[in-house]
Amino acid sequence: MEQFYTIQGEGFNTGRAAYFVRLGGCDVGCVWCDVKESWDADAHPKVSIPAIVASATAHAGRNVVITGGEPLMYNLGPLTAALHAAGCQNWIETSGAYPLSGEWDWICVSPKKFKAPLPEVLAAAHELKIIVFNKSDFAWAEQHAALVSPGCRLYLQPEWSKAPQMMPLIVDYVKENPKWQVSLQTHKFLDIP
Ligand SMILES: C[S@@+](CC[C@H](N)C(=O)[O-])C[C@H]1O[C@@H](n2cnc3c(N)ncnc32)[C@H](O)[C@@H]1O
Ligand SMILES: Nc1nc2[nH]cc(C(=O)O)c2c(=O)[nH]1
Ligand code: SF4
Ligand SMILES: [Mg+2]
């Protein structure tokens, strides 16, 4: 759908330069999704793997974030192998709703109520990023924290439009449950892609 070189705005790698590859297509249907224009894959041009690698490596940074849409709707083996061969570190942003494919240096799983994550993807996650839309999401976050590996980093990120109401609850929750960390969509505050 789009490619852009920016700063990773969310989660563990916040603040690090990264080239984003946003793949079109998603059927998870989050009511609050901030890139609904990504849902229809056919609405976007197809780009070849060599062209993506060439664009990604035209910048000083070598971290590539594969996002979407839901990137795991596709077999990401060929794309991630080509990026690795070009010296890139491959990071993914996924809901975990489809089987894991590809070669990854960092896996961020952000599970959704609208289409449950697969246990195998949760088990492979380096980072679990729960979007907090209402109070019930804290209990839901704990359910998923029980399904990730022991070393997985745990993040609570406010849904953007609900942040004014949810942020005080998130702050209190993290103070009481310090295995969790706060994640903010810092790129939205910085007004960068
Ligand atoms: C647009 S999604 C694409 C990747 C994948 N489909 C997923 O949901 O993880 C990228 C990240 O943005 C988060 N996100 C989407 N809409 C959001 C919103 N309104 N507020 C906060 N985070 C949001 C998702 O949970 C996910 O972590
Ligand atoms: N700067 C920036 N950081 C991000 N982290 C995850 C994003 C995404 O939409 O997957 C995203 C994004 O869209 N922009
Ligand atoms: S899974 Fe990701 S891309 Fe798909 S609707 Fe939800 S937030 Fe948007
Ligand atoms: Mg985004």
Structure description:
The structure is a single chain. The protein is an alpha/beta fold and 193 residues long. It has a single domain, classed as TIM Barrel (Alpha-Beta Barrel), CATH 3.20.20.70. 26% of the residues lie in helices and 23% in strands. The chain contains six helices and eight strands. Strands 1-2-3-4-5-6-7-8 form an eight-stranded mixed beta sheet. α1 runs parallel beside α2. The longest helix is centred in the last third of the chain and has 14 residues. The two termini are 14 Å apart. The chain binds S-adenosylmethionine, the ligand Nc1nc2[nH]cc(C(=O)O)c2c(=O)[nH]1, iron/sulfur cluster and magnesium ion.
Element order: H for helix, E for strand: EEHEHEEHEHEHEH
What would the average pLDDT be, to the nearest integer?
98
Q: What is the makeup of the main sheet?
A: 8 strands, mixed
Number of helices: 6
**Strand tally, please?**
8
Instruction: Name every ligand kind in the structure.
Output: S-adenosylmethionine, the ligand Nc1nc2[nH]cc(C(=O)O)c2c(=O)[nH]1, iron/sulfur cluster, magnesium ion
Enzyme class: lyase
Function: Catalyzes the complex heterocyclic radical-mediated conversion of 6-carboxy-5,6,7,8-tetrahydropterin (CPH4) to 7-carboxy-7-deazaguanine (CDG), a step common to the biosynthetic pathways of all 7-deazapurine-containing compounds.
Family: Belongs to the radical SAM superfamily. 7-carboxy-7-deazaguanine synthase family.
Subunit structure: Homodimer.
